[in-house]
Write a structure and sequence with these properties.
heterodimer, A: about 700 residues, alpha/beta, Rossmann fold, Hypothetical protein af1432, Beta-Lactamase, 6-stranded antiparallel beta sheet, 5-stranded parallel beta sheet, about 15% strand, B: about 120 residues, mainly alpha, Four Helix Bundle (Hemerythrin (Met), subunit A), 7 helices, elongated
């Protein structure tokens, strides 16, 4: 392990040496002989230094002076300081603690105490740092996820409304800009940064009520009739009702805010809006701002029925009251920020908003974690808020979402997911959980773990398909997950986040299509191309196995057709196909190579001849009063070569040899047949007698 | 003279120091270094020059080093001097300096005797 660096600051060389002697076995020791030197060393190396031992009484700049500078530069936040002191005056001690000192070491030094105190302080700081990293990681992740959920929701509403893909993002951005401008102007509305963020997020939902409005009205290019407009107007109340129906969440601040926005974003400041005819500041400020943002973006964006209006003109139209009546303070904010807004909307895309926001929240909470207990309560509130937001959106999307932590091994499912699967929300030791095993199947958890192990910190995402059994049905799902790693070096695996998506129907359709294409429609066996491909795959998978390939065709098949008709001929083919399937293992590959020719491919360990003999005899036998007889050539890969083509040719030669020796038999390929003609479809004595 | 005898000669408790520093090698190293430390000279010079601030720091350093090495007698007299100097009481400091000088001389004599015996 790399040694941590410790800086010892003391004006007495003797004192420095004593400390250095005690510590240099386990740490790299840097020394400074007064406060100024210490500051110079810190200036350059503060990021590498793990801990400072600091004397108080020193020439030029004393210990307190060093602490003040460390505080001003922000170094004290992640660099612990242990004060060396023989002064035990309590006002000195209190002052040192106020300035951020973590510990004291008093003279005379005790070697054990010094080493222990240094180690304890380092451990404490490392732990704190890890906790902060975890909080940061969690906030980023939930932020990213709820951002994604909002985008999905917004997009659904937009697609239906036939609006530009940017409308909801623009409204959100405008809401944010206007609210910040408003708080700079007045404290009347008592908006905190958190309120502004919540209203901006909630603004994305302002038109969700349009989901229930008839598409014909929604996307009508011309002017709406009075009745149509009346229907259109219901979207405000409908949206609010939808949110109010979320029993579990309706009292959450975000849902309350979204409710206000949905219900009242078409009210007018003069009381002539809908649905409730609220007037002035009876309309919640959230809804007032979103209403203005909505109108502004509608004017400046293209619609089916109109071209976009330039920004300057739009601001003027709104200010002149052509597009409704708004709070005069908000109109001022709009006018004063017109340039700013135009620039932001032009430059912004969703990603940069999300990135900036999460950055802000992380910065806030990380700073908060340092400052005081009150601030860490704020961090927890933010976390709570993020979790609530996340659960709100995951509830709405009805997805099977999960989180997994490795130590202790725990799987956490979304409430809806756990209910759907019939398992607990929090599953300790999921590998041994019976209810989960019933869902995942015998080896399901092993498979899940295996896929997690395939990821790396650089490539944390993985997806795979597996069947899940619940509600009495087994359905195929696509599992996507992202593993989480620590930021240490080397990173340690901590767990994963992910979800399961039902792909059963889609997969069903695809497999059916694949099957259709790969199979011979009469016998249901694979066709030659598909068999060839599977044989190739099999030999590639297990190149060291023993394989045999057999080809056979029906003796006197033409006669059977001629004498009994084609329908009977088809029955013969189907019967042979059925007998073939039943006489081989499911892992063997059989196909109808074309006409009355069939192919089988099998893996064997011992006694191939007995296996072939058994298959051969089960193929032959009567069908009604017709006797089915076949002739077969077989090639082993040892004799023919390790490829489909070589084995096919060799089996073909063996088939020819068998026919020459008199049909109704099988023959193994050997080297002597190398130059023999091939049999398939070329030579068959169809004029020969039948054997009914 | 052994290191233990040296400690006895200057009225110091060797076992206490060994208990703290946990290494005879370390004690020996620092005891031998003590005469080379410039703090005593700095104390005398700054007292002569009436620079009470520097004298305070020098006295404070001597006191700290003595505490670490367990030199109790010199530690006690330099402690009293440090407190007088912290209060910038020049007259009292001048009186206390004499005792520090006596104790220092005694300490140095013992260390030299030990050093010549190695």
């Amino acid at each position: 392990m790399r040694k941590s660096k410790i800086l010892i600051v003391d004006d007495s060389e003797m004192n420095r040496s004593i400390l250095a002697d005690m510590l240099e076995e386990e740490y790299v020791v840097l020394e400074a002989e007064d406060g100024e030197q210490a500051v110079a060393v810190l200036q350059e190396h503060h990021a590498d230094i793990a801990l400072v031992l600091l004397d108080i009484v020193m020439p030029r700049l004393d210990g307190f002076g060093v602490l003040e500078i460390m505080g001003r530069e922000g170094w004290i936040e992640d660099l612990p300081v242990i004060m060396i002191s023989s002064e035990s005056g309590s006002d000195q001690v209190a002052r040192a603690y106020d300035l951020g000192v973590s510990e004291f070491i008093s003279r005379p030094f005790d070697a054990l105490a010094v080493r222990r105190r240094v180690l304890n302080t380092l451990i404490l700081y490392a732990k704190q740092k890890r906790l902060m990293d975890m909080v940061e990681e969690q906030i980023l992740e939930t932020q990213r996820q709820s951002g994604m959920m909002i985008q999905i929701l917004s997009h659904i509403v937009e697609v239906r409304n036939g609006e530009s893909g940017q409308h909801i993002l623009h409204v959100r951005k405008l809401t944010d800009v206007l609210l910040r401008a408003l708080t700079r102007k007045t404290g009347v509305y008592g908006l905190t940064g958190e309120d502004i963020n919540r209203i901006s997020v909630g603004s994305a939902l302002h038109d969700i009520g349009k989901i229930v409005i008839d598409e014909k009205i929604l996307n009508k290019p011309g002017k709406l009739t009075a009745e149509e407009f009346a229907v259109m107007k219901t979207h405000a109340m409908k949206g609010a009702e939808m949110l109010d129906a979320l029993e579990e969440h309706r009292d959450d601040p975000l849902v309350r805010t979204a409710y206000e926005i949905c219900r009242w974003h078409h009210e007018r400041y003069d009381g002539r809006g809908y649905p409730d005819g609220l007037r002035g500041d009876d309309i919640p400020i959230s809804a007032q701002v979103v209403a203005l943002a909505d109108v502004y973006d509608a004017l400046t964006s293209p619609r089916v029925y109109k071209a976009p209006i330039p920004h300057g003109q739009a601001v003027q139209m709104i200010a002149e009251g052509q597009c409704g009546v708004f709070n005069p303070l908000l109109l001022e904010c709009l006018r004063e920020n017109a340039d700013n807004i135009r620039r932001e909307l032009a430059a912004d895309d969703d990603e940069s908003i999300a990135a900036r926001e999460s950055q802000n929240i992380v910065n806030d909470s990380v700073r908060a974690a340092h400052v005081s207990d009150a601030a860490s309560a704020r961090t927890l509130r933010l976390l709570d808020y993020e979790r609530m937001k996340h659960s709100f959106f995951s509830e709405m999307t009805k997805e099977l979402q999960f989180e997994y932590t490795v130590s202790p091994s725990t799987l956490i499912l979304s409430a809806w997911g756990a209910q759907t699967l019939g398992v607990g929300e929090i599953i300790a030791d999921p590998g041994r959980d019976e209810a989960l095993r019933a869902v995942l199947g015998e080896d399901g958890w092993g498979q899940f773990s295996w896929h997690m192990r395939q990821t790396t910190p650089e490539e944390p995402n993985v997806g795979y398909e597996c069947p899940l059994t619940y509600n009495g049905q087994t359905r195929w799902h696509h599992i996507v997950l992202r593993t989480i790693w620590t930021t240490d070096t080397p990173p340690r695996f901590q767990g994963a986040l992910g979800k399961a998506i039902d792909i059963h129907d889609a997969r069903q359709r695809i497999t059916a299509l694949e099957k259709k294409a790969a199979r011979d429609s009469m016998t249901g066996l694979l066709n030659r191309a598909a068999a060839k491909e599977r044989i190739g795959e099999r030999m590639e998978e297990r190149p060291n196995s023993h394989y045999a390939l057999g080809i056979f065709d029906l003796d006197y098949f033409k006669t059977a057709n001629d004498r009994y008709g084609h329908q009977f001929g088809d029955r013969v083919l189907k019967t042979v196909a059925g007998r073939l399937v039943h006489s081989v293992r499911s892992s063997d590959i059989v196909c109808r190579a074309g006409g009355d020719e069939f192919l089988l491919f099998l893996e064997y360990n011992t006694d191939l001849e007995r296996t072939i003999d058994r298959i051969f005899h089960s193929l032959c036998g009567p069908l009604d009063d017709y006797h089915i007889s076949v002739t077969m050539g077989v090639a082993r890969c040892e004799d023919a070569g390790q490829s489909y083509e070589a084995m096919f040719r060799a089996a073909d030669s063996a088939l020819y040899a068998a026919k020459r020796a008199g049909k109704g038999r099988y023959c193994f390929y050997d080297g002597s047949m190398r130059d023999v003609l091939t049999a398939i479809s070329d030579i068959d004595d169809e004029q020969g007698g039948t054997a009914p | 003279m052994t290191i233990q005898e040296c400690y006895r000669a200057i009225g110091a408790d060797y076992d206490e120091v060994l208990g703290r520093l946990r290494s005879e090698r370390l004690i020996q190293k620092f005891v031998l270094k003590f005469p080379e430390d410039g703090s005593f000279q700095l104390l005398c010079d700054s007292m002569d020059a009436g620079d009470l601030e520097t004298a305070f720091r020098a006295s404070h350093t001597i006191k700290g080093v003595c505490a670490n090495l367990g030199f109790a007698r010199l530690g006690a007299s330099s402690h009293d001097l440090t407190e007088a100097l912290r209060a910038r009481d020049g007259a009292k400091a001048a009186a206390l300096l004499a005792q520090v000088k006596t104790d220092y001389a005694e300490t140095i004599t013992a260390i030299r005797a030990y050093q010549s015996g190695i």
